[in-house]
């Protein structure tokens, strides 16, 4: 897919380091994501890819380095951080829909409480978004009544309702039954096509080939390789990436 | 039966004192307890420390000592409260520690992903707690909180030792005056407490079933 990216940087990480105790989970990470760009982060488990994704809206703090979104450095805490997070959509591996609220309320909570939108306006938009991800008829149910794939699509709608500048996906299909993975990937692919800036941590190589502008390969807390999907999958340069690809693409 | 008719006024007034004591202490304990629980899960270390200190202090002090402190200790720092107000403060502050622990365990039972999702949307700490975490914590907290409040209703009897004319305080007087009806006197007082605690237990049961459906 040709790039919808404008080249203007939206998310910038420079010299990012993080430790969990003695474990150096992020090592001198530099990464710039352009507006409209879709970056897929892959790598073996424990490589730091989820942690990297979670630092971008500061669900994980960093020990060294600098992260800016749209030119603004990530605030440490408080109202400024909350305001910044409202512009960064996040989709979790385990969906994390609000268990005590209906599907519709899940999607309207952010716009009403954070953006101060009126309830009617928020509901109208929420229904549009739920229709877009194909779960419009489930609006009045609670999350436990939906399948995993449906819940994850609601989670995407919930994030989109905030009109985010960038969407983070932290292994969005890893907790799903195989037959539900595609319905979620389809929604993500259409988002990518519409020009959403996306950071996607995933093991879905098909999605990476189809929708990514760039693949970032991580190992042991470092970015080992960063290239367009075609180059990455056909001609990886690092031994580590070759090894990883040989293991996952052979079966 | 004659005993009840003769002493109805005394028993009624004493019952109403116990009821009022229970309601006022209960409101104080609930409000203060939720505030303390919120402080204990807050991201601000001094607030956490303060709340932990409070909970550990009151949870590990006998209620009678708390009464002594409020009613005889406070005047030492030029704060005089009536016996009744002192009893409300003592029972309320003591019970708040237990309410805080029950609510905190409820908060901890909510999956961390719920609060993460709320924060990721841009909700602040207070909003996340109010909109997402506490409503879910409340479900698991209803049964233990019910036990805390039933214990509290009975704990108000300690106020009898501090000149509050509540139910238990009628015992010595009524027993002296009706020595032949000792069991009836005791029964009357027990019934007085049960009129308060049995509906509480029933309400807790109802509430537990109602919030369970939401799952």
UniProtKB/TrEMBL annotation, chain A:
Q: What is its main location?
A: membrane
Q: Which UniProt keywords are listed? A: Amino-acid transport, ATP-binding, Cell membrane, Membrane, Nucleotide-binding, Transport
What Enzyme Commission number does this protein have?
Answer: 7.4.2.1
* ABC transporter domain: residues covered: 11-245
Q: Where in the cell is it found?
A: Cell membrane
Family that this chain belongs to: Belongs to the ABC transporter superfamily.
Indicate what this protein is called per its UniProt record: ABC-type polar-amino-acid transporter
TrEMBL record, chain B:
Chief location of this protein within or outside the cell: membrane
| One MF term in the entry's GO annotations | transmembrane transporter activity
Any single Pfam family the record assigns to this protein: BPD_transp_1
Q: Which InterPro entries match?
A: AA_ABC_transptr_permease_3TM (IPR010065), ArtM/GltK/GlnP/TcyL/YhdX-like (IPR043429), MetI-like (IPR000515), MetI-like_sf (IPR035906)
Q: Which UniProt keywords apply?
A: Amino-acid transport, Cell membrane, Membrane, Transmembrane, Transmembrane helix, Transport
Q: What family, per the record?
A: Belongs to the binding-protein-dependent transport system permease family. HisMQ subfamily.
Q: Could you tell me where this protein is found in the cell? A: Cell membrane
**Which cellular component, as a GO term, is one annotated location?**
ATP-binding cassette (ABC) transporter complex
Residues annotated as domain ABC transmembrane type-1: 15-202
Q: How does this protein lie in the membrane?
A: Multi-pass membrane protein
Q: Where are the transmembrane segments?
A: 14-39, 51-74, 80-100, 140-162, 182-205
Protein name (database record)? Amino acid ABC transporter membrane protein 1, PAAT family
Which GO terms are recorded in the biological process aspect for this UniProt protein? amino acid transport
